[in-house]
Amino acid sequence: MEIVVLTMKASVIEMFLVLLVTGIHSNKETTKKVKRPKFTVPQINCDVKAGKIINPEFVVKCPAGCQDPRYHVYGTDIYASYSSVCGAAVHSGVLDNSGGKILVRKVAGQSGYKGSYSNGVQSLSLPRWRESFIVSEAKPQKGVTYPSALTYSSSKSPAAKAGETTKAYQKPSVPGTTAQPVTLIRVLRTTTAEATHTTTLSKPSPSAGSSTSSPRPQPMGQRSQELELWSTTVYTSSPSSAGTNPGIQRRDSPGAAFQKPAGAYVSLGFVPKEELSTQSSEPVSQGDPSCKIDLSFLIDGSASIGKRRFRIQKQFLADVAQALHIGPAGPLMGVVQYGDNPATHFNLKTHVSSRDLKTAIEKITQRGGLSNVGRAISFVTKNFFSKVNGNRGGAPNVAVVIVDGWPTDKVEEASRLARESGINIFFITIEGAVENEKQYVIEPNFANKAVCRTNGFYSLNVQSWFSLHKTVQPLVKRVCDTERLACSKTCFNSADIGFVIDGSSSVGTSNFRTVLQFVANLSKEFEISDTDTRIGAVQYTYEQRLEFGFDDYNTKPDILNAIKRVGYWSGGTSTGAAINYALEQLFKKSKPNKRKLMILITDGRSYDDVRIPAMVAHHKGVITYAIGVAWAAQDELEVIATHPAKDHSFFVDEFDNLYKSVPKIIQNICTEFNSQPRN
C-alpha cells in the first residue's frame, strides 16, 4: 500500500513537471512570435518646410538635390520653421546633396535669424519667427519612439471641413513612462465666412485606469508633461460646411441650440482633446499668425456723418476685429478718430483680443467737427506706428481710412509721406459725391491719389452705409494678404546700392577718408539686411577692385565696418571702365525684385569715355547718381547720371561739403521711388 501511494505521488510530480515545462516552452514560443515592429523612416521632399510638420521631434529621409537655391533656408544652426527641412540639413553639414536621414527637433522661435553661406547653400536672414528647429544626424535616442508617419498642418486648404480630426499623434516615449496617443481636434476657417460657427465636440470617454478627477488646466503658452499646444492660429468654419456637417450649427439660425463645450479652444488651431473640458470658458487667443499685421483704423467722427451712421461704423469695426482674430501672435489693431483734429482711442498694445477690442469699440463716442483726413494720416505717420505704441517692426503697417463723402482737406501729400514710411494705406469711401456735389470736393479723385496702387486693391467704394457690412470679408482678405502689401517696400528697404568710389591720386588719403564717411552717412539712412537694402562697393583708379559685394554683409554695423576698412589705392581716373566693372561685378548679382542704384563719386575728368558705359547702365535699369567734387567735370556728371540729370547729379566744391548733399540725395531717391507707375 505504501509503495502504491509513493508511485502515485511520483506520477503527480511527473505530470506537474511536464505541464510546467510545456508552459515555459509555450511562453517562449509566444515571446518569439511577438516581434517589435520595424521603424519606417518617413520620406519628405526638398520643399517641405518644418512649420508644416506638427510633430515636435522626428526622423525623416531627405532626397538628393536639396542644395538647390529655390529651397529657401532662414538662419544658421538654428533655423526658422519657414525653412526647407532638407535644405537646412545640407546648410548645417548634416547631409550633403545626395540626401539621407536626419533627426529634427523643434525649438522656440528666435528674435532674429542670421543668414550665411555654408556647404553650397546660402541661407537668408529673417528678423523674427514664431518657431525654430535644429537638425542633427539620425541617431535616435535609446528608448525614444519616433513617428513612422508625420502629421502635417493643412491650414491653407480651403476645402478642409470644420471639425476634421487629424490622425492620432503619439509623442516620443521616454524610458520608464507610457506615452498615450493624443487626438488633436482642428477647427478651420475660410475667408468668406460671414458668421461664426462652431463644431460640437464630444467629451472623450475616460479610458481604463484614468483618474476620475479632471486634470489641472494648463495655461496658454506652457507645455504639459503629456502634450503640447503646437499652434495658435485662429480658425472659423465655412458657412458652406454648415449644411453638410451635422456637428455644425449656425449661431444665428432660428432655433439653433448654440453650444460651446466648456473650455473648448474653438479659436485655436490644434488642441489636445483631453483638455477640451478642462480649460477656462474664456480661452485667450494668440491670434492668427498668417495675418500678422499692425493695423490702424482711422474712423470718421465728423459732424456730417450723424449718430446712426457712426453706430454703423462702430459695428463695422467690431465685425472686422472679430474676423481678424486679434492676438499677440497675429494681427493687432488700434483706432484713431478724426474730425477737426485726430485723437487715438487706443493703440496696438491696448487690447490684444477680439473680445476686448469689441468692448472698447462700443465705448467710442463721436467727436464731431470737419473731416480732416489728411491731418489724420499725418498724425498716424508721425505718432501711431512707434515701438511705445506696440509697433512690432517685423509686421507690415496698415492704415484703413474710412471716409463719409469726401475729406475737407487734401490727402495726397500726407499719404505719400505715409507710404514712404512703409504704411499700407487702404481707403473705404462711403456715399461719395454725386454729380452736383463734386464742386465741393477739394481734391478730386482723392482716394486714387492716396493709395499705393490704383488697381482697386487698396480702395473700396461703398454706395451706402447700409452695405458697409458686406465689405468686412473683402477688407480682411486684402489686409491679411501680406504678399501683396506693396507699400511695405519703401525707398529705404528695397534697393541694391552700389558705390563706385574714385581712389585716384588727386583725391589724397585725408579726402578719401572723407569720401568714405560720406558713403557711410548715406548707408546709415537705409534698412539693411539680406531681404531689405543691400550695399556693395567698388574702388577704381586705372584699374578696379571689388571692396565688398551685395552678399558679403547683411547688417548695418557690418556694412559700416566694411566701409571703414576700405584702403586708399591711388592712381589714375578711368571712370568709364569702373562703370562697366560695377555692372559686371556688382549689379549682375542684384536680385530681380530690387531697385538698382549706382552712386558714383569722383573728383576729376575721366581718362576714358563714359558715354557708352553710362548708356549701358541706364539700359540695364541701373539708376545712376553722379557726385562730383572739386575738379570733376559737370558735363561728364550729367552724362553719367540718369535722366533727368538735375535730380541725379550733384556737385560740391570741396570734400568737406559732401555731407551737405546727403539729405537731398535721399529725398530724390525716395521721390523717384514713389513716382513709379502705380498700376
From TrEMBL:
Entries under Pfam families matching the protein: LCCL, VWA
Superkingdom, taxonomy of origin: Eukaryota
Role description: Promotes matrix assembly and cell adhesiveness. Plays a role in spinal cord formation by regulating the proliferation and differentiation of neural stem cells.
Protein name (database record): Vitrin
Low complexity compositional bias, start-end: 194-215
Region annotation (Disordered) ranges: 147-177, 194-257
Presence of keyword Repeat: yes
Ranges of compositional bias, category Polar residues: 148-157, 230-247
Organism: Equus caballus (Horse)
GO-annotated biological processes: nervous system development
Keywords annotated in UniProt: Disulfide bond, Extracellular matrix, Glycoprotein, Neurogenesis, Repeat, Secreted, Signal
Subunit structure as annotated in this protein's UniProt entry: Binds dermatan sulfate and chondroitin sulfate.
Gene transcribed to yield this protein: VIT
VWFA domain span: 294-479, 496-669
Claim: DNA repair is one of the keywords in the record: no
Subcellular location field: Secreted, Extracellular space, Extracellular matrix
CDD domains: vWA_collagen
Annotated LCCL domain residues: 40-133
Signal peptide region: 1-26
